[in-house]
Amino acid sequence: MNKTTKALKEISGDRAIHIAKNLAEMTQILLTEEEKLAASLSRTNAVVKAVTELEEKGPEKAKEAVAVLDRELAAIKKRLGDQYETLSVTDSKGKVIKESISQVGLTFKQQK
Known about the structure:
Structural class: mainly alpha
């Protein structure tokens, strides 16, 4: 292998490593922002009230709180636009309380 070929391979390898590091950093930033958004949304009054009432009072007595949550999710989804396919809220056991496109009342594992 001549010096030029060896130098080009080394430069290519360095570039590939640099690109991979940049992609990893960008992915980490994106995931951190998604985590912040999820944490923020999970603390809204509509989410807290619906989850609390469902767990403490049951589905019949929590209908209004779930309806408010449904409206809140629709408004959030509208603001976010096409960035997200769906928004979901689950109870502490993973049962879906409200979701913008899927079956409510099942865990994510149960949904097909």
